[in-house]
Request: fold
Amino acid sequence: QVQLVESGGGLVQPGGSLRLSCAASGIIFSLYTMGWYRQGPGKQRELVATVTSGRSTNLADSVKGRFTISRDNAKNTVYLQMNSLKPEDTAVYYCNAGYEMGVLSYWGQGTQVTVSS
Reply:
């Protein structure tokens, strides 16, 4: 059974930082592209960042220079370090594990991030 469990969300003031974690089980973690997506109020789900099995990263333009994605294959965990947070970063953040261009794709349950003063 595949499980992706996100943690680290919460309420933070503008300009603050959070680190999200996603622990995976039931997959050969090192073979998967891991990603973070988010869905804000009244918006469609959008890509935030991905890291491939070869550790190549891709970030959305809206978060470049502020967010960093990384993975620890020994811990089957992917991280999203979020700095200089803005109110528009408020969303539910979802972890995704993808293999072979989406032939296999799994989602976590999401973690809420709220940026507000």
